[in-house]
Design brief:
Length: 238
């Protein structure tokens, strides 16, 4: 029994010794690899020291240059901000001047439209009178007839689009199925022509015909009213 007991203990010790030998061998290999790596790093470190040696001044110069560049960048950013602020002020000033100019143009244009309204009122008030011998009246008739030409209408739409953010182009895009006569009526309404003026320019015999055409147009435009549509249509029926 004692023999078996010590034999078992010896076997366990031998197993532990074999394990320790294996671990020791592994540690020796790791130590060897570590020493080799240490030697490589030492050699690499020497190479780096050699390459850096004599370049201290160059490194200092680079650091100084970097600081100078940072200072110049900060100064440049300050100048950019100042220039940006000045640019914003100029834009605001220009926008204000453009707004004043647009108001003056609209006032001038409105003045001419008022004269057209007055001429049409005079013409329409004499429509049932015999004016065949009145050269002034005949001349006025010819002028008013010329205002209804396609070229004049196109010029009016160009002016409207120029001074009101392409109003007519946007209107035509929203309502692509209107008749030419309805587009023309929309232009006259936008410009603020009186019913008598529209009657003359549209060859309506009575002013009631203008009111009827205006009612039909409004009904068609407001059939499916939306926010974008309302902002455009509201300028016709104020």
């Amino acid at each position: 029994i004692i023999y078996k007991y010590y034999k078992s203990m010896l076997a366990n010790k031998m197993h532990e010794i074999e394990h320790l030998v294996s671990v020791s061998q592994t540690l020796r290999e790791d130590l060897t690899l570590s020493n080799n790596r240490y030697d490589e790093l030492t050699e690499e470190n020497c190479i780096l020291k050699t390459s850096i040696a004599g370049k201290e001044d160059e490194i200092k110069n680079l650091i100084t240059e970097s600081r100078t560049l940072n200072d110049n960048l900060a100064e440049s950013e300050n100048r950019y901000r100042e220039m940006s602020d000045e640019n914003m002020k100029l834009r605001s000033s220009i926008a204000g001047k453009e707004g004043e100019f647009a108001i003056e143009v609209r006032d001038l244009f409105s003045h001419h439209l008022d004269m057209v309204n007055d001429l049409c009122r005079v013409w329409f008030s004499n429509i049932n009178k015999d004016m065949s011998g009145n050269t002034v009246y005949l001349r006025l008739t010819k002028i008013l007839g010329a205002m209804n030409q396609i070229e004049v209408i196109e010029e009016l739409t160009r002016i409207i689009d120029k001074y009101d953010n392409n109003w007519f182009a946007r209107f035509k895009e929203l309502f692509p199925d209107l008749k030419d006569s309805e587009y023309r009526l929309a232009i006259y309404l936008y410009l603020g022509f009186r019913p008598s003026t529209i009657a003359v320019l549209s060859n309506h015999v009575t002013i009631d015909a203008v009111y009827i055409a205006k009612y039909k147009l409004k009904k068609k435009l407001t059939k499916n009213i939306g926010e974008q549509t309302e902002s455009l249509v509201s300028k016709l029926f104020m």
